[in-house]
Amino acid sequence: MSLTAPDQVALRQAELLERLQQVDLPTLGHLLEDGFVDPAIRRLGQPRRMAGTAATLALDAPDATAVNRALVALRPGEVLVVDMRGDHTHAPIGAVTVAAARARGAAGILVDGVVTDVDALTDSSSGLPVHARGTSCLTTKRLGGEGGKHQVPVHIGGVRVAPGDIVLGDANGVIALPPGALAAVVRQAELSDAAEPGLLTRIRAGEDLRTLLHLG
Predict the structure, then answer these.
(1) CATH number of 25-179
(2) pLDDT by residue for the chain (216 residues), tens digit each?
(3) How far is CA 104 from CA 10, 30, 72, in A?
(4) Residue ranges, CATH 3.50.30.40, the chain
């Protein structure tokens, strides 16, 4: 049975994500200029790679109900991307929300703001890769659920993130870009990563750096 056009797109994106899982993120930094989230947003959750497609939430009020609705709507392989609209005091994410996201099959959580329950976020039984600006004891509240907009373009650490963009994160930082931008450089990144161990071996062996490094 032939695949429909949407199924073909999903298959290509899944293949791209699988390849990007193997690429060192700083290698992408050699090849791209856009999509790099403010380095103040750092990994606070499980110490593993985050890679998935963006499911976005713009939170205009510290509304835990709006966050819960976004969690319930998550699909496997998505990264919940929360734009706190400049609120860096209320934490929308903690132990319960991370466990819920994991139960939905999420690939991670990215917050332009703070999170709480930081010890629980690294728990191997319930944690996920979570990237945020820091931690807080002040949390969102059970409001009416109208304080958030789901699946709209958001801005995270100076980067525009649209639903369906690819979100990558590790200990070095976070990258968020449309699939096409990453597909254009993934092969070059793979070749660069494959060449790096040999280059490091030659440097450590004492070869002349003038023959190994680009000097213009």
Answers:
(1) 3.50.30.40
(2) 444 555 445 558 889 999 999 999 999 999 999 999 999 999 998 888 999 999 999 999 999 999 999 999 999 999 999 999 999 999 999 999 999 999 999 999 999 999 999 988 888 877 899 999 999 999 998 988 787 899 999 999 999 999 999 999 999 999 999 999 999 999 999 999 999 999 999 999 999 889 988 888
(3) 19, 34, 7
(4) 25-179
Instruction: Please list the residues that pair with 22 across neighbouring strands.
Output: none
> How is residue 64 written in tokens?
């835990």
Measure the CA–CA gap between 101 and 46, rounded to whole angstroms: 13
Dist CA 125 CA 116 (whole Å): 17
- Strand segments, DSSP code E, in 116-190 are 130-132, 134-135, 148-150, 154-156, 159-161, 166-170, 173-177
Backbone region of residue 158 per phi and psi (left: phi > 0; alpha: psi in -120 to 50; beta: other values): left
Helices (H) and strands (E) in the chain, counts: 8, 12
